């Protein structure tokens, strides 16, 4: 456990779980959310460009699946500070041995887990409780013109959402299904 963040390998190459250790005392706790030194060793070798917060009010709501295309491809560190989510990353790296494979797991206020999602992964989550709050660290600025997405109900992905999918944004509900010629992104 170096510097309060433990990094674990996951089945998709480059995808990591980052486990936060809380330092508690009679007042409460301190928890480190980001550490450039620890995360550089885990593959974050870019600046910290932007940090976002989202609040998702309704249990069952799904946000995603989003990624930014090169040259705005980004590393994300996603953590759930309030409530619990099922978080999922899908490999869209052209030529990857795990192309279009997904990894999903629960991130929560309680378990203190985050996902470090490399460039070339689409990201999404489902709120498992009401009023979930997420914090995102991004290695590249928001680039709306280079945003892309996958459909959360795409049969080619067959994502095992824990709850019935609700609350999609108009954009997310309208994401096109993958076509047979989809080759992913070249990083
Ligand atoms: C991502 C982003 C969005 N915005 C603006 C654009 C829209 O006017 C508004 C909501 O954007 P959007 O509906 O894309 O937000 P989400 O669907 O919650 O996307 C988020 O959830 C999925 C799961 C992700 O992985 C994205 O990285 C994350 O941003 O915020 C910004 O101003 N900056 C940003 O970095």
From TrEMBL:
One of its GO terms (molecular function) is dTDP-4-dehydrorhamnose 3,5-epimerase activity. The active site is at residues 66, 136. CDD domains: cupin_RmlC (cd00438). The keyword Membrane does not apply. Its EC number is 5.1.3.13. It holds the Pfam family dTDP_sugar_isom. It catalyses: dTDP-4-dehydro-6-deoxy-alpha-D-glucose = dTDP-4-dehydro-beta-L-rhamnose. GO terms for biological process: dTDP-rhamnose biosynthetic process; polysaccharide biosynthetic process. Coiled coil: none annotated. Keywords: Isomerase. InterPro entries: RmlC-like, RmlC-like_jellyroll, RmlC_Cupin_sf. GO terms for cellular component: cytosol. The keyword Nucleotide-binding does not apply. Catalyzes the epimerization of the C3' and C5'positions of dTDP-6-deoxy-D-xylo-4-hexulose, forming dTDP-6-deoxy-L-lyxo-4-hexulose. This is dTDP-4-dehydrorhamnose 3,5-epimerase. It comes from Pararhodospirillum photometricum DSM 122. The lineage of its organism: Bacteria, Pseudomonadati, Pseudomonadota, Alphaproteobacteria, Rhodospirillales.
């Amino acid at each position: 456990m170096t510097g309060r963040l433990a990094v674990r390998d996951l089945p998709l190459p480059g995808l990591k779980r980052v486990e936060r250790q809380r330092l508690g005392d009679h007042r409460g706790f301190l928890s480190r959310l980001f550490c450039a030194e620890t995360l550089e060793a885990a593959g974050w070798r870019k600046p910290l460009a932007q940090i976002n917060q989202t609040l998702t009010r309704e249990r069952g709501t799904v946000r995603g699946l989003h990624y930014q295309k090169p040259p705005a491809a980004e590393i994300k560190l996603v953590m759930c500070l309030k409530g619990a989510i099922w978080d999922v990353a899908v490999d869209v790296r052209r030529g990857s041995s795990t192309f279009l494979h997904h990894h999903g797991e629960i991130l929560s206020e309680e378990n203190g887990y985050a996902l470090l999602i490399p460039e070339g992964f689409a990201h999404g989550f489902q709120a498992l409780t009401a009023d979930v709050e997420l914090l995102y660290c991004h290695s590249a600025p928001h680039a709306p013109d280079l945003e892309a997405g996958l459909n959360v109900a795409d049969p080619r992905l067959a994502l095992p959402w824990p709850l019935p999918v609700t609350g999609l944004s108009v954009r997310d509900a309208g994401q096109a299904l993958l076509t047979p010629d989809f080759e992913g992104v070249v990083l």
